[in-house]
Write a structure and sequence with these properties.
Layout (H helix, E strand, L loop, with lengths): L20 H14 L4 H8 L3 H8 L7 H11 L13
Helix pairs in contact: 2-3, 2-4
């Protein structure tokens, strides 16, 4: 029995930089590869298409927010919004 292609684990990006599509995409790709998931398997587990997952990881514009949140939740990535009340 032959094994599939090995997924190379990528390092976690610097999560302290300003939020951007690029940072979200890099974080999702890093988490996916650290879990040993190829794009096809991850897309299936996240209930999105391979094309959608690829667009998210490559920071393509036009991806629906609910798709991004679905992928983040399935991969165990948490995102929060800080209060702005005391920052004014």
């Amino acid at each position: 029995m032959s094994k599939g292609k090995q997924v190379k684990s990528l390092p976690t990006p610097d999560l302290k930089q300003p939020l951007s599509l690029e940072l979200v995409g890099k974080a999702i790709r890093a988490r996916r590869t650290q879990q040993g998931l190829d794009t096809k398997t991850a897309a299936m587990l996240c209930d999105v298409s391979v094309v959608t997952l690829s667009k998210i990881e490559n920071a393509a514009k036009g991806v629906r927010m609910d798709s991004i949140l679905k992928v983040m939740t399935a991969l165990g990535i948490k995102m929060s919004i800080e209060s702005w009340e005391n920052n004014i």
